[in-house]
Amino acid sequence: MKRYCIILLTTLALISCNSCRLFIRENNKFVNPFIGTAGDYGQTDPSANIPFGMIKAGPDTDPGNHCGYDYNATKFLGFSQNRASGVGCSGTGGNLRIFPFINNLKESAEMDKNTEKAEPGFYSVKLRNGIIAEATAARTAGIYRFVFPKTEKTGFRIHFETSYSGFIDEKHIFQNDRFLKGWIQCRGNCKMGSYKFYYFVELAEKPTEIKESKGIADIYFSANSSQTQIIKVGLSSVSTAEAEKNLNSEAAEINFDQMRAIAAKNWREYLGRVNVTTDNDTLKTLFYTHLYHASQTPYNIIDESGSYGGSDGNTYHSDNGSYYSGWSLWDTFRSKMPLLSILYPEKYKNMMRSMYQLYKQGKSDDPTDTESFILIRNEHSIPVLLDAYRKDLLDEPLADVLHLMKKEAENLSVDSPDKILEACYDWWAFSEIAGELGDVALQKEFYEKSINYRKIWYDKFKVMGANADVMHGDGLYEGTLWQYRWFVPYDYPWIEDAMGGKKASVSQLDYFFENNLFNVGNQPDIHVPFLYYEFGEPWKSQKLVRQILLEPTVNHYGTHEKWKNPYIGKVFKAEPEGYIEEMDDDAGTMSAWFVLSSMGLYPRNIGETSYWILPSVFEEVGIRLADKKSFKIINRRNSSDDIYIESATLNGEPFSKSWIDYQDIQNGGTLELTLGSTPNTDWGKL
User: Fold this and answer.
1) Per-residue CA distances from 193 to 264, 296, 411 (Å)
2) Prior bond to 397 cis, omega within 30?
């Protein structure tokens, strides 16, 4: 409680301190949480939250999409407490829904869309019946403010059985009528596994009447009650007692506006870690909104007391103030995890500590039946931990979980061509971990396993036949043979030889992109635009990536099918239809792709520590590092036609490599790129 009073005072001091703004820019104003929330164009949501917060205090609408909300919907169903951004199927979360009503109770209310507002840490809408409904949030607690018109009767309906993915069970009890506590258990994403979490709800005043029926509680206030009603909600992965402690710690001594100010400060400091320079405010809005969306998960679910629930159903304790859960690694390992490791290494260390602990809890790829909060999927944690180890972002001893990782690696599925490629990638990463730990025999064993893909590659991917452009052909998951063909990030020299050398490899890439075989809307091939770097013609990637970021392109694919009529237009837009159709944000994966690519950095191979260098779409990118250091990327261009790297310097010295090491970024300094309108075919040839 004292901690939050201090935070509040600091917040107010920052608000009144003009000089402070010189150090942390007001990047919050460039975040538009409604981007990607309309229809099937991103599946993001406008919930109130803080970076990696457990509670996502957001509106549910009818229809609702994966995150419970559709920008085009006008029916308001209430506020629910949790959700995952753009993860497919029917989504997950949507629990403990709170719906305000006046006089005659209805199941929904019409929204006045002209009044709807969302910003980092805050959401508000006025309903057609005159109710103003607002939400703000801390990490484990949220506050709702409802302003009712003068009427005979007001109240709330609390739904205990709401769920996007499937309700299982719940238990609740009212305590002195003003307090409500309980737990809810629901299915995970795509109805895999289940999670159980706890809550504690505080009403600002005692209601005149409470009526209960199965899965619902109707709470009534008389005409003499306050027109402004406050509801506070605390969450926990452990118990109702811990949920109450969390609420008391984060929300007991502050009001709605104070929590909103604290949430805004959280985001201001977080987004202020990177500053971009451009006169194009739309481009800034895209950048900071995508960084915002990339920072919704994983959730920091630790209680104020240090307790947290594990995936095995047991309770654990940590003294470092964090335990992260809610991974979606099959998606996020490709772009989001490498982004967070650059911008927020101190948080990333705690994320990696949590992933390490997950192995000790009996980690599985899919959600267990004893999850303590929302979880999506856990594949490819092995390369992520290898990557963290080599970046010095893992404080825990990998040797202690090597046997658990080995067991996981030995049980990977290989029943389709794509799964063989992905399993071999994990085997390569495990081989590298064994090598780092000095186990030469284990390293050799799994390296040999990691190159087993070569036979299937020759059989299925060397010659691209008539079925190579069939979605789900040969049992593939969300892609074609053309799109999965390139997923061998640790062994491109062999792929190059198998294709017939660099020129032949470039020719194959040319064909892939010229014939619009690339699927920008899904993960299997999102690294492919950068592969010209691997094959010695980086200038082609420089032009191509810029086109994907800023210009109209031809797109033939959704998540599950090839469209008869392609979409021709921009992929990334600063509007509710923020992506192309069926392009889920997938827990911030596609947002992170935009952020990295627009900065001018992209990971070469997760498990190694280097990033390709591209021209940024900004004039300058500045990253605030630890110990008052910074890393700047400066792009020198004379006109908008200057899109190719002519030369580069790092800290004033000539720099001819096409990639930069992670540690060079963290050491601080300046990478300066001189750009031109024609390719320099000599720069950056590895």
Assistant:
1) 34, 21, 19
2) no
